[in-house]
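Q: A reviewer asked whether we had any structural model of the full assembly, not just the individual parts. We don't, so I'm hoping you can provide one. Inputs are below.
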Amino acid sequence: MTAAGKLLQAAVSYGDWRVDQFIEQIITGLSIGSILLLVAMGLSIIYGSMGIINLAHGEFVMLGAYTAWLLQSHFGLGLLASLVPIFVVVAAVGWIIERYVLSLLNNRPLDTILATWGVGIMLQQSVRLMVGSELRYVQMPPSLSDSTEVLGLSVSSYRVFLFFVAIALFAVTWLLMNRTTVGMKLRAIMQDRSVAASFGINAKRVYALTFAYGAGLAGLAGALVSPLKSVSPDMGTGYVVDAFMVVVLGGVQSLAGTVASAFFLGELSGAIAFLQNDTVAKAIVLLAIVVLIRFRPEGLFTTRVRA
Amino acid sequence: MGISRRTLMKNAAALGAFAGAGFPQIWIKNADLARAEGGEIKVGVLFSLTGTTAIIEESLNKATILAIEEINAAGGIKGSKIVPIVEDPASDPATFSEKARKLVVGDKCVSVFGSYTSASRKAVLPVFERQNNLYWYPTLYEGRECSKNVIYTGAVPNQQQDEFVPWLINKFGKKFYLIGSNYIYPKEENNYCKKLLQKYGGEVVAEEYVPLGHSEFSSVINKIRSTQPNVIFSTVVGDSVVALHRQYRAAGLDPEKMPMASLTTSENEVAAMGGEAAAGHFTSAPYFQVHKSPENEKFVAAYRKRWGDDKVTHFVSEACYFQTFLFKQAVEKLAASDITPPNIRDAVKGQEIIAPQGRVRIEPDNLHTWLWPKIAQAKSDGQFQILVEAKEWLKPLPYAAYPGQVCTEKGLVEKS
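A: Here is a predicted structure for the entire assembly that you could use as a starting point for your response.
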């Protein structure tokens, strides 16, 4: 073989290696992004439609994970079978909080921040008092605990499953918002609450339902990530930061923006973590968001509404 | 009744003069030292019951309380009861320091048992050194400390790695991937690990630190795939341990080809990640719950009876348990009027006790503990299988990674 041929071959195999790594990194980013999307969706709904900055969001995520653990260790229910009950339980908690705390603080956004923060602390401490502060174990569904081939690369089946669940939940949420009566009423209230009320829309009820739905989504997110991560009373703190970054970057009233920013942040932090390390990735991602918000305060995507 | 400022000042001055004459002990050196009085020996128990590290420190509190209860039930120390004063420092170093001050200055405890993280130990250190009190620290840690006010009963790097690293090279190969959480402990352990790798012909393919509490390891796993190490040497701590193991398994990596070798994965973390994610990986520590000894059987049974059947014991809670008995042994050597922190420290030097892990001894030079290194492999039932047991107890060398320095009874000595 000639020297040129050798060189060519080396270049091609080097190129192959790069492509492989590149695809692997894209898939990793999608996986990180889908987890971010799962965690952020509930917050996006509540923040975007009700204007409530829900600092108890992380605790809803935590409650979902603990419900999964409770159903599994005390009732023998697997994770997939317990998803519906988990959604119902956490949504009910959300409904109660909206009904008896937040709805009494109407139109006082600063007070709701403090109230949700307090509720979050109370939820965290009651879980700690009731079941203790040690880490809890939620089993991964055995059918999903292997890895599968995606584009010739081995990827965790559970992560693939999470990706599709995140997309499905997004689709359901989008349909709820845009194709149902409740969704239409909610959008009417978002535009102008008093006009909507004068058309006979019960804003209180719609708000309670919206908050409950957002809480339920957060609960599902907590249950779904628990087999990959760990379950502890203060697990929510990290997730609430991630969720806020996604929502703020994506644009507050835009579901599509939430999706785009979740995957953007997933790819970005995955790539930096691969090239550098996770500590650097965390810092750079946060810095990037701060800079972006400085120049585009409304986020990447905005829904234009006539005021 | 009105008191003018002048009479108040006069009275205060008179009182001061009287106190100076009448209570001369305030002029005696060390009279303000904490001491045990009135048939009670007050000790502080300073483990976080809330906050991030509560997940592990709760078990340390439990093991300490169990030991104190056992000592009191058996008649206390020469008739005096140990009175534990429990404080919750909430996983926050500043609160640790504040609570330590309260225990030492306010409650006059003669010793405090506490801390899991190095950050919290460093935060309370000035309190104990200034008040000349005594802190009992049960956790394995990075070494490089030579305080005369701390009794260290956990392992230092040489006690966890001297046997472990060559064993790993022999069994799996010389390419090591070092991964740790981003703070002082993993960096110092890796420092020592790199020295050993150099000595035994190993190599580091990557050295990486993730933020504390990090739970997304996809990129790390990609890097592990692309560098193909023989051993993943892990000093990741807390809930990150759980996330790393679970995601390693979900990604389809094989512990038989590329095992994780950890200094931080105990029965406690294994219970949270599930046996199937832990199975096949290795840990080096002086104690495992399955260790066979009459003392350990007694410890495990008592712990479960007191705190619940689902609870596990691990290498830090074991140290909590035996260090409380070492405290008892030291206090027993003292006359009832002499129970002060410096006297307890001098009495504990060279003391030996049969701990659940085997016979341990406090090294008089550096106040660290002679321990029994063990290497074990996790099994899917959540327990470990001990593969290698040291034939002799190993001397603690807190400055093993720094050949110019030695910790002696007089303090840190630089050798040139």
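A: Points you may want to mention in the reply: The longest strand of chain A covers residues 147-150. Chain A has eleven helices and two strands.
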